[in-house]
Design brief:
single chain; 308 residues; alpha/beta; Rossmann fold; eight-stranded mixed β-sheet; 13 helices; 17% strand
């Protein structure tokens, strides 16, 4: 009897600990889906930085110029409830290393695709903003069987339709602002240079890029060689125009969502996408400039979640 009664407290303690562990594991599981973790992977000899979160269907988020993968942080916890989110820094930008070659839309798409494969991703939904949408299109056009949905956000496709009206617009001088002299002019004044994008391309500069993010982006591009690497994507527009003109001969089969800002390019990107894909949904966000997620987080997130 002593031995039997002696076991009861132990059994009770074990039961309590097991129950507590179960609760802890469950709570931890719920938290982990919304916890954003940072990683690096070596892809074809180039270190790529990426963030991940969540479980479920993979969705790849590709940032634009004057930003890094940090731009997606507000929406990652929302998507992580239903998706495995993968948000890389494009090659040469942010915490990703600068490759010796391939700083163009097709080359970046090939590297991001290789990163996805290294993570065991066979099919994904792909989202891109600004130059990231050009990489996203190059990803979908080169690997169409591996992209189930495509989202492109407020910029344009070089080589498709009347793309020259945007590329040759005098207000878009920054497309051609690159090289040794511009690099010397911007060095040490990176914040001033980027304010042009963050303020002038917004419907209201006071509802554009948050101050903490401005500091982070400035520091990222101010690293040795990274401004030049970012500019390389602009330099590649002419090559992208040739590549996309060829790729667009085969229409995309997956559903496409094109989002534009009313105070930016509006429906322009949506009209372009209708030339390269038959199943296109176009959303234009009212009173919104180029920085869709920052200027109109609710409208952008609602459109993305509804489509994805």
């Amino acid at each position: 009897m002593k031995r039997a009664f002696g076991l009861l407290p132990c059994l009770s303690l074990v039961a309590v600990l097991a129950f507590a562990l179960a609760i802890s594991t469950n709570a931890s599981g719920q938290t982990s889906e919304k916890t954003i973790t940072s990683h690096t992977a070596e892809i074809d000899g180039v270190k790529l930085h990426y963030m991940t979160a969540g479980h479920g269907t993979p969705v790849i988020l590709l940032h634009g110029y004057a930003e890094t993968s940090l731009m997606w942080k507000p929406i990652i916890p929302v998507l992580a409830e239903r998706f495995t989110v993968i948000a890389p820094d494009l090659p040469g930008i942010g915490d990703s290393a600068i490759p010796a070659s391939g700083l163009d839309m097709k080359g970046a798409a090939i590297r991001i695709h290789a990163l996805a494969h290294s993570l065991g991703v066979e099919k994904a939904e792909v989202v891109g903003h600004d130059i990231g949408l050009m990489v996203a299109y190059a990803y979908a056009a080169q690997f169409p069987a591996e992209v189930t949905k495509l989202v492109v956000m407020d910029a344009f496709l070089p080589g498709v339709g009347d793309w020259g009206t945007v590329y040759n617009d005098p207000a878009m001088w920054h497309f051609r602002f690159n090289g040794p002299t511009p690099e010397l002019l911007v060095q040490g004044r990176e914040r001033t240079y980027f304010e042009h994008y963050w303020n002038d391309f917004a419907a209201d500069k006071t509802h554009s890029i948050p101050e903490a993010d401005r500091k982070a982006y400035t520091a990222a591009y101010a690293r040795p060689g990274h401004m030049r690497a970012g500019w390389a994507y602009f330099v590649s527009f002419q090559q992208a125009a040739k590549d996309f003109a060829e790729l667009s001969q085969t229409k995309l089969a997956m559903p496409v969502l094109a989002i534009g800002g009313e105070k930016s390019l509006g429906e322009f990107l949506g009209q372009q996408m209708k030339l390269v894909a038959p199943d296109v949904t176009v959303v234009v966000l009212k009173n919104t400039g180029h920085w869709l997620l920052e200027e109109n987080p609710k409208g952008t997130i609602d459109a993305l979640v509804s489509f994805l």
